[in-house]
Amino acid sequence: MPLLPTALLLTTLLPPTPITRFTWPLPPPHPVVRAYQAPTSPFGPGHRGVDLSAPAGTAVLAAADGVVIHAGAVAARTLVSLEHRGNLRTTYEPVDPAVTTGRQVRRGEVIGHLQEGHCPSPCLHWGARRGHEYLDPLRLVSTGRVRLLPLGPAPPARGG
Fold it and tell me: Alpha carbon of 54 to those of 3, 6, 26, 103, 113: distances in Å?
């Protein structure tokens, strides 16, 4: 059997890969105090994540199902890093970890508690990357759909 028809047949018979669903890593509200800024080069300046304001001690939640690949100190901060399906990694800092390396976690599960030290007032730095490419983590929780809403009340209906 030729390769192309075989590949097409297999893709129609195999179940689709489940889509990983993401949620916010903090309970509401989700004020962004510093947005993602893509670096101009692999080692160039940028902000490789978003900063979300929350009080110190707030529970930090796994944004999606994954495996803890690091929970502990890196330089002067403690953080948690999760590996998700599709070679996607999310990081959360500064966090007092409530999980250990190698543990499976579920979306919405507490992985630690927010500490002070990243922003002038407590905030969570939430990062995401696929392989070596940094991503805007807000795109993980956005539907990407735009809805236009009216600016004000609808004009009166015209009689006819």
Answer: 54, 52, 8, 26, 11
Query: Hunting for tokens 């922003």 — which residue is that?
Result: 119
**Distance separating alpha carbons of residues 106 and 137, to the nearest angstrom:** 18
Question: Taking Cα atoms as reference points, which of 83, 67, 82, 87 lies closest to residue 17?
Answer: 87
Write out the DSSP string of 62-77. -SSSEEEEEEEEETTE
- Specify the amino acid at residue 68: V
Residue 128 confidence (pLDDT): 96
Instruction: Kindly write down the DSSP assignment for every residue of 104-145, as one continuous string.
Output: EE-TT-EEEEE-S-SSSS-EEEEEEEETTEEE-THHHH----
Residues belonging to the chain: 160
Angstrom distance (rounded) from CA 77 to CA 100? 16
C-alpha 52/C-alpha 94 separation (Å) is 12
Distance (Å, whole) CA 141 – CA 97: 23
Determine if the pTM surpasses 0.85.
no
Q: Kindly report, residue by residue over 11-53, the tens digit of the pLDDT.
A: 444 444 445 689 999 999 989 999 999 888 878 888 899 999 9
